[in-house]
Design goal:
Blueprint: H1 5-19, E1 21-23, H2 24-31, H3 35-47, E2 51-54, E3 57-60, H4 70-74, H5 78-89, E4 97-100, H6 104-109, E5 119-122, H7 125-133, E6 137-140, E7 144-146, E8 151-153, H8 155-161, E9 166-172, E10 175-177, E11 181-184, H9 187-198, E12 200-206, E13 218-221, E14 227-231, H10 238-241, E15 246-249
Domain HTH deoR-type: 5-60
Keywords: DNA-binding, Transcription, Transcription regulation
Protein name: DeoR/GlpR transcriptional regulator
Length: 251
């Protein structure tokens, strides 16, 4: 079957998403193309920054992005975040003790929290303010303030969080990847997220479509350790659904 150049490129990139490495011979067989054609395809995709050629094939590129401020995050993908937040809040039940991670998507959850007698532990300064405005029993853990995200981080906050157990935790994340799991740029924030999910009966990770297939500096957990909540998207989530439960908003 003859395929256009763009179709071959799309096929190659989809294969890399699932396997991380592709072999030239396998691509020749799958695409019914010559070795020279596949080599040209891989060269073009490498020049476009989509992959790295290796002996006998190519491997996927993982871009480590920098972290944005809370102001920058709050204006991006707002409708998607609201949909995710509303779905996430629906999992909260009366009498729950939950951990609410700092972040713009978890912040959007607060509007939709309507259960009785819940306790919320958070490292988000803005989160704590909004929660107390709703007369929700709130514990703001202590530590140093990270200016860009208005999050409490550091050793004192980690030590305090170790004391608590949660019915559920709701975590923001900068990157979700089928191989490298859930990642974030900041080691101190990553440490808190790891503790929270380890001390929760159920841990939810909230991530819109821009976070998928992204890898950041510090690993928090494997995707099989958490339940993922995302917006409806057109990405191929089969590698993820094979490992964990995914809830999609707007379905």
């Amino acid at each position: 079957m003859y395929m256009l150049t763009e179709e071959r490129h799309t096929f190659i990139l989809n294969e890399l998403k699932q396997a991380n490495i592709v072999k030239t011979q396998d691509l020749m067989n799958a695409l019914n193309s010559s070795e020279s054609t596949i080599r040209r395809d891989l060269q073009h995709l490498e020049e476009a920054g989509e992959l790295t050629r290796i002996h006998g094939g190519a491997k996927r590129i993982y871009q480590l992005d920098s972290e944005q401020s809370i102001q920058e995050k709050s204006i991006k993908n707002n409708q998607e975040k609201i949909a995710i937040a509303k779905l996430a809040a629906s999992f909260i039940e009366d009498n729950d003790v939950i951990y609410l991670d700092a972040g713009t998507t978890t912040l959007a959850m607060i509007e939709f929290i309507n259960k009785w007698n819940i306790t919320v532990v958070t490292n988000g300064i803005v989160h704590a303010s909004l929660l107390t405005d709703k007369e929700i029993n709130t514990i703001l853990i202590g530590g140093k303030v990270k200016p860009s995200t208005k999050a409490i981080v550091g050793t004192p906050s980690q030590n305090e969080l170790q004391k608590y157990q949660f019915n559920k935790s709701f975590l923001g994340m900068n990157g979700i990847d089928a191989t490298f799991g859930c990642t974030t740029p900041d080691p101190e924030e990553a440490a808190l997220k790891t503790i929270a999910h380890q001390h929760s009966a159920t841990a939810y990770v909230l991530a819109d479509y821009t976070k998928w297939d992204k890898v950041h500096f510090v690993n928090v957990c494997g995707i099989e350790e958490v339940t993922l909540i995302t917006d409806s998207c057109h990405e191929d989530l089969r590698p993820y659904k094979a490992k964990t439960t995914i809830w999609e908003a707007n379905q």
